[in-house]
Amino acid sequence: MQVLSGIIGGHPGVESSVLWATGHVVGDDGQAGFAGQLQVGNPPGQVMFGSGLLEAQGAEVHLILRTHGLPIPGWVDEQISTFEGGCEVNVCANQQFAIHP
Question: On the chain, which terminus has fewer CB atoms closer than 10 Å, C or N?
């Protein structure tokens, strides 16, 4: 799962970031639960660009749920903790998107 903070390619003065928030392997039944937390100035993992969350009160958060395909032995940690983990072998795709102003 990836979180977009701010507006990508957006307005001048918006300090956008793209960063990882949490990841999980979905069970055989197709059900999954997710929880994540972002702290100001302390990204929990991969930051693709930007400085991370700088101001929680004024942030607009764009949440993306992304699939990395089936678990790949030896690559699962990378699959659940990076944007492109396992995409060299599996087809990765964004599945859902939500904006939280």
Answer: C
